[in-house]
User: Which sequence fits this backbone?
């Protein structure tokens, strides 16, 4: 294992989470220099995390002679420029979500890093939560049969920094901010080789006086017939609602990442300090999260990124994944305008093909078996469909 | 309070639930006669529930001299005929869900009972669960502010009787069977005066070898801007998933009617008998429901129906409600075919108008306030939008 | 089914719950007259519930010519007098919990009703919650094997009326108020024929400036070896904590009656009205209960009482049960003083004998099998104990 | 931060968990040599975890020239010998739980490391789960007021290795195996300076054919008046029940570490591989844990241990803590035999004194206020106790 010296670009909330993770738990990797547009914020950040240097010159931060990895933790509209500069410097680049503001932007970033031949990772933390990783493994091992439906929901009362609310800088509203997580979670469960075919989406600006959507719901149809469903909101009340549900032909998975994780606290005293990201109250019933950077996937994400870099292999989440997510979001925005299903347009599909979900196909004495149920008395009841007439009948057979 | 003698039409699972409820808990109302197409099933049913008479003649059951209320618990394709016969007999009629197979059928039934001037109730039990009734009351009292979104989900491995699977007899698949519940639950939460404007729906037949949909998801846009979302499935694994989620500008409600109600049981012994409707296993971790007919709304439903009949007022759920539900389902099926939003077509709207969801509108020193957050040190941070440039800025003010 | 006209003695919170139940859901039984020490409260109560008469003369209320059942919903110190008066009047008597302030008092009440030959029911509502009834049935059917341990917990911030806090009137503190519920719940799960042998209890007055205990924990040893454990508190924060846990040799049951029943609400609006009994807040995350009188057992309790009266059989909860509960509480108070296990002293045991919990007894090649586990590769691992040396060894056998 | 080379003594389940943690997540510390009594198990273990050397000679493992830290992951009866050898070698020693089989043994181990002046840490993982650490912090910050009661429960179907079942090797049964966790969790919540005064305990051997207890419940009385309660069982069915509940004068905390952590899976397919430690089934409803070594505290435990070693400070959990735990367990076993409260005997108390839990003390017009409640109409109801007569009265005052 190599130890990495890292350039951190950006000093916002996400920069804090990233550095807390990199410097946490006996890890040997360290942030060596941080870049901020503001000298004061840069100095405060480096003091907070014990970072030797801060600078307001992005280029010199990227080209710092001692660092070999650059983390892009900047607002969306700066991703392309920053990634291009890192690629030119020939260093490994890890870029926060969403990759681009549009699929076009993401596609250019992908081509930039591929042409430069540098290691590139897409920092999609929510695909790395320990629960999600274990659930994906169970799905891959067949515990759910074929996946038919994935719901991924992320909802809270709205982001903390001004730039998030300006669609000119971000590329959109709640979809760009939250939907990118949901889409990639969905892809991990239906299988990354399962091509997203088309999207139906509705958006609205219900509560906040902004130009972009504060609520959106979308359906994504995959090649296998599976449906992905994302629900994002900047107007949810009650904290951070972060849940995934997966249905398959043989099983179900429910994940709750924030509000119901087995940690429940009532306090009439208040003043209990920080509860959890985007918690709305500090008294009454609260639902804290144990170790947020671990539970939200940051720990496993950086482990995968840096282990992959050491091993010379692709990380779980690549710039290509980021590009596909942007393409799905583009289709969602088009659908919200057209009111119809819109195709997901991909310059290149690298995922192969996925067969249709397996339907049941049992027959019994020439009829199609629709269902079989074990009765309390041990007999078996079947619902049969006559192949010729199409009529359905109940049929009880002894024993089974 | 009058005591009613009731004609029960039908001896299926729903007839059992209805009679168990009517005969339960010190109630004075009694089923007097039951009609079944099969003499054997009719006799078994009347023996099971202590009903004096059974018959295979529907007309004589309806016109039984001692009954004043007729409950229609028959397969969908028989509703119109049965309701017409009861109306002709001048008796009160209570019809199970869905009212019709189509909005046209439901509209004719509505007109039939209104012309005959008989009391008519729509037996939509899931709008009467004690949790739902109390949650609706909280919403009506303003606990959630304006409702922005309602998700109603009903999913299980598929119905128990053959006729449910035959769309010719029922009018469709999982939407007709389960979606009718969800739609009316959604209407109760967004307000029954809130007109359903259009529907976007996707359906698929993923697992079962049938002609109709075994999975469907739909979005319903209401006049206020609220979105209703229903998810229905005949392929869910793990039991009966019956959940509602309501989001508003000031609050949230989550209801779980079946799988997580504070009753959890692990058994390695099995043989624990009936667990709950559509439970898949009888060992391992099980999630039984206490008193199913109460928890699923049957008790409060019949109380409302018969109390309303006694009082000469409309029940909470009327044939007009059933008609609106059918109209929404019709739009859902059209949308599934067209791939676009489809208008909800109503011959008559009785609900008035509902204003748009209230957006926030605070200003601060000439700028629009997007968000205000209390910082740990007592200061207030505001995110402001400049009215002219459209730029967003963070601004911290002392005290607040 | 007969319809009963009822005398209600008492107009406190419990009188309200009882009358709400008796007059609810199409029931034909009605309270005919109510007694209160205060004319004003009596009048308000009868107006609230549509009761024809109220009186401040207990004797005349009991002997009202039209009533056949008397419900004793009075403070504990009045139970014995009231029950004696009802017995003398030859009417059925239903007495709220606890039966007496001491086992002596309860024993006299039991003898009084038995000598008078009147129907007598012990109104122990929490043994009648739909969840509890179904769980008891599962236990009786063997789903848990032999019951080894029952935990029953009832905790809230303290009662609403002054008299509850005065041990001279009630017989004690939190044990008398809440422990009586827990003890009878425990008896229902371990089996009513399973004799409570001895009790170990600790009490303390931690928060409230009162003379009696505001917190207590007790262990009850039963003849079978099962342990009952009750935890009662008048200082709990967060609402009403009402949970039962049952462990058996083959399974587990967990019941949550109040705080986590599948109904979750967040409100920033407040003003949402009554949430649930003893809820502490009206905003933030709230956990309401759907239909409280049903969920807390009142409905099934009165159904059982009046059905049993009609049928001439004993109800599930009798005065003898109330007496046993008092005897256990007496032993608890003695143990809290002595610091040792104290015997449960019963003038008469009507429950027969219960065998010791069944221990496992498998042998393998002459050794005792402690445990067998299925390994992932299909082999079976056994932990064996050598009968002679008493040594324990791991042993893996092929297949199994 | 220094990087440590570690000697691991023992190759059982706990050795696997420890090494998985030390080698996990970009950590720079590495196990350098492993000792096992069995050459085969040692070789398999070193191959599994990429450890350069294994040996069957404990002394040479301890004195390996490149290691500076020794982890004792051996059966209980070997702790004292191993710790003495490490102390003699002058290396840092980290010893798994329980420290000794008895307080005497633990006291000698404590003296050994203190005399040798080596760094010594007590590997009590469950005090380090991220939830527990955050909850302890909230308690320390006053969110719960004064702690009145802590329940810690650990229950499962029994341990996996033969030696655990032999009390001669371990010092007891379920108390020694599981109670040591509970006791130290309780001490962390009531405050480590809060002296455990006396213990009441009951034990039984209900199911397994062994000589030691397979079930135990104990109450621990602390100097402040707080009560700790532990429940341990080797006969629980349904998986691993690991829950803590903390009640305080102003709040409540509930932690669930295993069965209800927001990860729920149903599978009819089975074969989903490893679910979680001590899960009983591989199909039906399952409740996996995301990242077990993180959720169970191993990650934060080793971080604290090695960071403390680097910083020259005491870790959170010391050998003195382990000694106190053994002293409480000794008292529990004595109490189980005597049937009375038994004092906790400590050769030395290092924790200072803790004041009694703060009782409420408000007065109103000369009376003691027992309770105040806000009525729905805005008035305040007080329950008052007359200082002279001791009588309790309800009193409603305007406004409040």
Assistant:
């Amino acid at each position: 294992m190599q130890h990495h010296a890292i350039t951190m670009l950006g000093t916002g909330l996400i920069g804090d989470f990233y550095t807390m993770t990199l410097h946490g738990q006996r890890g040997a990797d360290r942030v060596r220099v941080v870049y901020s547009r503001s000298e004061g914020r840069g100095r405060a950040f480096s003091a907070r995390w014990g970072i030797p240097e801060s600078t307001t010159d992005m280029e010199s931060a990227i080209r710092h002679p001692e660092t070999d990895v650059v983390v892009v933790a900047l607002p969306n509209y700066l991703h392309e420029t920053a990634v291009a500069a890192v690629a030119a410097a020939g260093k490994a680049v890890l870029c926060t979500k969403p990759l681009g503001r549009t699929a076009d932007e993401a596609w250019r970033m992908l081509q930039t890093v591929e042409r430069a031949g540098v290691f590139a990772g897409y920092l999609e933390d929510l695909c790395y939560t320990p629960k999600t990783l274990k659930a994906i493994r169970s799905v891959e091992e067949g515990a759910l049969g074929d996946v038919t439906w994935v719901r991924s929901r992320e909802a809270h009362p709205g982001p903390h920094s001004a730039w998030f609310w300006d669609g000119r800088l971000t590329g959109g509203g709640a979809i760009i901010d939250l939907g990118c997580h949901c889409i990639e979670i969905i892809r991990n469960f239906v299988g990354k080789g399962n091509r997203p075919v088309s999207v139906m989406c509705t958006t609205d600006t219900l509560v906040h006086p902004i130009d972009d959507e504060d609520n959106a719901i979308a359906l994504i149809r995959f090649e296998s017939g599976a449906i992905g469903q994302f629900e994002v909101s900047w107007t949810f009340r009650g904290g951070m609602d972060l849940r995934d549900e997966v249905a398959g032909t043989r099983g179900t998975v429910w994940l709750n990442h924030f509000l119901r994780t087995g940690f429940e606290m009532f306090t009439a005293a208040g003043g209990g300090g920080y509860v959890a990201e985007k918690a709305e109250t500090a008294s009454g019933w609260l639902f804290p999260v144990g170790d947020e950077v671990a539970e939200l996937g940051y720990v496993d994400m950086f482990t995968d990124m840096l282990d992959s870099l050491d091993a010379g292999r692709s990380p779980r989440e690549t710039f290509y994944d980021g590009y596909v997510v942007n393409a799905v979001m583009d289709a969602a925005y088009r659908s919200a305008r057209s009111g119809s299903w819109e195709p997901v347009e991909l310059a290149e599909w690298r995922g192969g093909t996925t067969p249709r979900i397996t339907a049941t196909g049992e027959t019994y004495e020439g009829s199609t078996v629709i269902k079989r149920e074990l009765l309390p008395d041990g007999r078996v009841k079947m619902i049969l469909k006559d192949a010729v007439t199409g009529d359905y009948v109940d049929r009880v057979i002894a024993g089974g």
User: Anything to note?
Assistant: The radius of gyration of chain D is 24 Å. Residues 173 and 212 of chain D are 5 Å apart (CA to CA).
